[in-house]
Amino acid sequence: MKKKQNPPFGAEQILKNLLEYFLISISRKKSETNDTYSLLRDKVNANEIIAYIDDNYKEKITLDELAFMFNTNRSTLCKVFKANTGMTIVEYANAKKLISAKNKIVSTNKTLTEIAEELNFESIHYFTRFFKKQTGLSPNEFRKQQKA
After folding, report:
1. Going by C-beta distance under 8 Å and a sequence separation of 6 or more, which residues neighbour residue 53?
2. Taking each helix axis from N to C terminus, what angle separates 89-107 and 74-85, rounded to the nearest 10 degrees?
3. Least confident of 13-22, 87-96, 123-132
């Protein structure tokens, strides 16, 4: 930008003041946003979310449903949960399903299809892929290994 030849009296000072006001207002908005996030974070209790997932991991749970139930938004819900557990909500729910699947495979004579249905997997194929990805073994291989 070029400076005017004959700027009005005090123009530079007004420009400086407006710029300073702009920077101060941005700084205040940023700290208000951080305060709002910390208020929301304090309001959302990760232990309540964990307890709910522990009780309902066999059901289909969406982040939108959890956010609605705990009166927050998805982003805050996920941040608070990860900060408290070190895991995402999906990772936590999958870990619960895996533990339950392992227990059922070893301690019952239920078919894999029955176990997959109980844990609310879409299909036996998806359950098998999920199990193998998590453990490195198919559910049948896991069962044989545990029985031996």
Report:
1. 61, 89, 92, 93, 96
2. 60
3. 13-22
Average pLDDT score over residue span 22-29 = 83
The structure's pTM equals: 0.68
Residue 112 neighbours by CB distance under 10 Å: 19
Q: How far is CA 99 from CA 42, 56, 102, 119, in A?
A: 30, 14, 5, 11
- Find all residues with CB under 8 Å of 143, minimum gap 6, and list them: 105, 106
Residues written for the chain: 148
- Residues 79, 115: contact at Cβ < 8 Å? no
Distance CA 146, CA 112 (A): 15
Kindly state the tokens that stand for 137.
């073994």
Token duo for residue 37: 């996030």
